[in-house]
Automatic annotation (TrEMBL):
<comment type="pathway">
    <text>Bacterial outer membrane biogenesis; lipopolysaccharide biosynthesis.</text>
</comment>
<dbReference type="GO" id="GO:0005737">
    <property type="term" value="C:cytoplasm"/>
</dbReference>
<comment type="similarity">
    <text>Belongs to the KdsA family.</text>
</comment>
<keyword id="KW-0448">Lipopolysaccharide biosynthesis</keyword>
<keyword id="KW-0963">Cytoplasm</keyword>
<comment type="pathway">
    <text>Carbohydrate biosynthesis; 3-deoxy-D-manno-octulosonate biosynthesis; 3-deoxy-D-manno-octulosonate from D-ribulose 5-phosphate: step 2/3.</text>
</comment>
<dbReference type="InterPro" id="IPR013785">
    <property type="entry name" value="Aldolase_TIM"/>
</dbReference>
<protein>
    <recommendedName>
        <fullName>2-dehydro-3-deoxyphosphooctonate aldolase</fullName>
        <ecNumber>2.5.1.55</ecNumber>
    </recommendedName>
</protein>
<dbReference type="GO" id="GO:0008676">
    <property type="term" value="F:3-deoxy-8-phosphooctulonate synthase activity"/>
</dbReference>
<dbReference type="InterPro" id="IPR006269">
    <property type="entry name" value="KDO8P_synthase"/>
</dbReference>
<feature type="domain" description="DAHP synthetase I/KDSA">
    <location>
        <begin position="12"/>
        <end position="259"/>
    </location>
</feature>
<dbReference type="Pfam" id="PF00793">
    <property type="entry name" value="DAHP_synth_1"/>
</dbReference>
<dbReference type="InterPro" id="IPR006218">
    <property type="entry name" value="DAHP1/KDSA"/>
</dbReference>
<dbReference type="GO" id="GO:0019294">
    <property type="term" value="P:keto-3-deoxy-D-manno-octulosonic acid biosynthetic process"/>
</dbReference>
<keyword id="KW-0808">Transferase</keyword>
């Protein structure tokens, strides 16, 4: 897919990033991708398929991380071909950027790594869209310096993602002012509706979450000016191998996306 064309599309109408947190197996990921492609066709919106080939920041060493770089990219490439959805995935090391960019339309910088200069530069140089998740530890206005690192290498295809701020131990809160504040930097702002209801490390060896608050926060973010909504979705969240407690059920995804699109149209359509 033409990344410039995709980037311009996402500046004009509410878009979605969705998929299972991690690539558990090809069949499950493809099932989710095909369902998302149907939703795209019904709603006439841009949906980006998201899933990670490796979750390098899991709470426990025993936690499932994914199939790894090589196999994960093969699966993502197949999903992209069959569903015709653009693909987004994380990268964790500068040397991964070019390899990931051969398949992914969007390279995602994880929140914990959003200030890592070499990682940002590597992503910028691929000339793909770079989705930078705002760290749970920095203010929205601090993203100006982060954006500047990518811009300095000539890449102005940037998304900024709000995913909550650490508020004490094992807790996140969302300040909706972050959406318009980051939008002032001139790039689309995405709201991560599922990670924002996460309880980091809340289960001791894994993170917990309160998925019942996903619709509430997503609606508020769209009303506040978010250009996109990020949701990790799964056919059976309680059995997901990663981030299940905060993942949204796949069979409820269409109705939530439809409602969010209706809110966007009321607020922004003329």
């Amino acid at each position: 897919m033409d990344c410039f064309k995709l980037f311009e599309q996402t500046k004009k109408k509410l878009f979605f990033i969705a998929g299972p947190c991690v690539l558990e197996n090809l069949d499950l990921a493809l099932k989710v991708g095909e369902e998302l492609a149907e939703i795209r066709n019904k709603l006439g919106v841009t949906i980006v398929f998201k899933s990670s080939f490796d979750k390098a920041n899991r709470t426990s060493l025993e936690s499932f991380r994914g199939p790894g770089l090589d196999l994960g990219l093969k699966w993502l490439e197949k999903i992209k071909k069959i569903t015709e959805l653009p693909v987004l995935t994380d990268y964790h090391l500068p040397e991964q950027a070019n390899v990931v960019a051969e398949v992914a339309d969007i390279l995602q910088v994880p929140a914990f790594l959003c200030r890592q200069t070499d990682l940002l530069i590597a992503g910028a140089k691929t000339n793909r869209i770079v989705n930078i998740k705002k760290g749970q530890f920095i203010a929205p206005w601090d993203m100006k310096a982060v954006v500047g690192k990518v811009e300095s290498f000539g890449n102005k295809k940037i998304w900024l993602t709000e995913r909550g701020f650490s508020f004490g131990y094992n807790n996140l809160v969302v300040d909706m002012r972050s959406v318009p504040l980051m939008a002032e930097l001139g790039y689309p702002v995405v709201f991560d509706a599922t990670h924002s209801v996460q309880i980091p490390g809340g289960r001791g060896t894994s993170s917990g979450g309160n998925r019942e608050f996903v619709p509430c926060l997503a609606k508020a973010a769209v009303a506040a000016g978010a250009s996109g909504v990020f949701m990790e979705v799964h056919p059976d969240p309680d059995k997901a191998l990663c981030d299940g407690p905060n993942s949204w059920p796949l069979n409820q995804t269409y109705s939530l996306m439809k409602k969010l699109l209706e809110i966007w149209e009321v607020v922004y359509e003329k």
